[in-house]
């Protein structure tokens, strides 16, 4: 699995918007933003104005969980269009695949058994998508998934926090 932040946009505009609420200069809004980032009930609405675009390659069992988040847009590789175009390899799966299963899948691809391949494709098959979402949606995801059983959520969160321009809006610093 890998996660790459392709782009972020909207911070300056979000700070300008926040400064209007308080009749304060932008520098003061930036300080206030850090205090408001984790206050729900409308206080952290400015996070909805800061957008990110993530490129992610992840197994389909992880995407199933990621798909429960609705306030976002995803564009994905299509198995409908590409699954029959080439033989599959170990590297197409999270942590590889049993060689016997791989062999059977590739036999079906050679025999052009599209429906069979779709029915039997393992959940570990890696799929790339571009995920567009706001800081608000991403903060919610991180809060909900930071103690999740799937190791991929931990990889996702660490990668995002390492690359984000404003990780302080996504994860609260631990109390000292
Ligand atoms: C550990 C874990 C296990 C889970 N297991 C299951 C499960 O077994 N089955 C299952 O179905 N779900 C499951 N969920 C999914 C969960 O119920 C949420 O749907 C999912 O986490 C998305 O969260 P969200 O609604 O906060 O995020 P988003 O979908 O991004 O929504 C963000 C915010 O917008 C609001 N919102 C979004 N759409 C609308 C709308 N149309 N109208 C009004 N408000 C809206 C939401 O209420 C939320 O406050 C699980 C979640 C976790 C963390």
What does this structure look like?
This protein is α+β, with helices and mostly antiparallel strands. The protein has helices at 11-22, 26-36, 60-66, 79-82, 99-110, 114-120, 135-145, 151-163; strands at 2-9, 51-59, 72-76, 126-134. Strands 1-2-4-3 form a four-stranded antiparallel β-sheet. The chain starts with a strand and ends in a 13-residue tail after the last helix. The mean pLDDT is 95. The protein binds flavin-adenine dinucleotide. Flavin-adenine dinucleotide binds at residues 68-71, 137, 140, 144-145, 148.
Outline of this structure?
The chain is α+β, with helices and mostly antiparallel strands and 176 residues long.
Write the layout of secondary structure elements.
Elements lengths: L1 E8 L1 H12 L3 H11 L14 E9 H7 L5 E5 L2 H4 L16 H12 L3 H7 L5 E9 H11 L5 H13 L13
The structure holds flavin-adenine dinucleotide (FAD).
Distance between the termini: 33 Å
Oligomer: single chain
What class, by secondary structure content? alpha+beta
- In order across it, which strands form the biggest sheet? 1-2-4-3
Bin the helical content.
40-55%
If you compute it from the alpha carbons, what radius of gyration comes out, rounded to the nearest whole angstrom?
20 Å
Question: What average pLDDT do the residues reach?
Answer: 95
Beta-strand level of the residues, as a percent range?
A: 15-25%
């Amino acid at each position: 699995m890998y996660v790459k932040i392709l782009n972020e946009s909207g911070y300056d505009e979000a700070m300008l918007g926040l400064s209007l609420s308080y009749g304060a200069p932008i520098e003061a809004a930036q300080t206030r933003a850090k205090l408001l980032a984790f206050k729900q009930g409308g206080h952290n609405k400015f996070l909805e104005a800061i957008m990110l675009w993530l490129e992610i390659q992840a197994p389909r069992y992880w995407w199933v969980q990621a798909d429960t988040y609705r306030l976002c847009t995803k564009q994905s590789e299509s198995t409908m269009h590409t699954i029959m175009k080439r033989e599959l390899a170990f590297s197409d799966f999270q942590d590889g695949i049993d060689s016997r299963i791989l062999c059977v899948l590739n036999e079906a691809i050679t025999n052009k058994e599209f429906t069979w391949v779709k029915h039997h494709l393992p959940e570990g098959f890696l799929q790339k998508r571009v995920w567009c979402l706001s800081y608000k949606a991403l903060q919610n995801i991180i809060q909900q998934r930071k103690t999740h059983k799937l190791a991929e959520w931990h990889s996702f969160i660490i990668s995002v926090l390492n690359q984000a321009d404003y990780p302080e809006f996504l994860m609260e610093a631990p109390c000292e």
